[in-house]
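ok so i was messing around last nite and threw this chain in just to see what happens. nothing serious, just curious
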Amino acid sequence: MEKIIEIEGAEYAIEPAKPWQIPLLRLYLDLSEKKPKNVKEAKEMGKQIEEIFELVLANVTPKVPPKHRMAVFNAIQVYTAAVTNKALSFFQTQGIFSQPIDQKSARPM
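result:
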């Protein structure tokens, strides 16, 4: 389910995150919300975030330049959430899930 996004005139083909990338997106969110205690910890967190970006952006074409990395990464997160929510809604309307689904954990409430 490829989607084309445009940033400052450049077009990128993105897809929803692969199942193995979902924990990476969650780790990114955890790291981005955490306040580092010092510069050393901030640098370590930054390295982890950079590694997450590399893994998630690896399948984007063309290769994403540094100035667009954050925007493309965020677009992948938003697109992944939209596709996931659409699937969950479908399953709910089919009666597969009889309970409402928690959007954060994707588990029945």
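not much to say yet. The CA atoms of residues 87 and 93 lie 10 Å apart.
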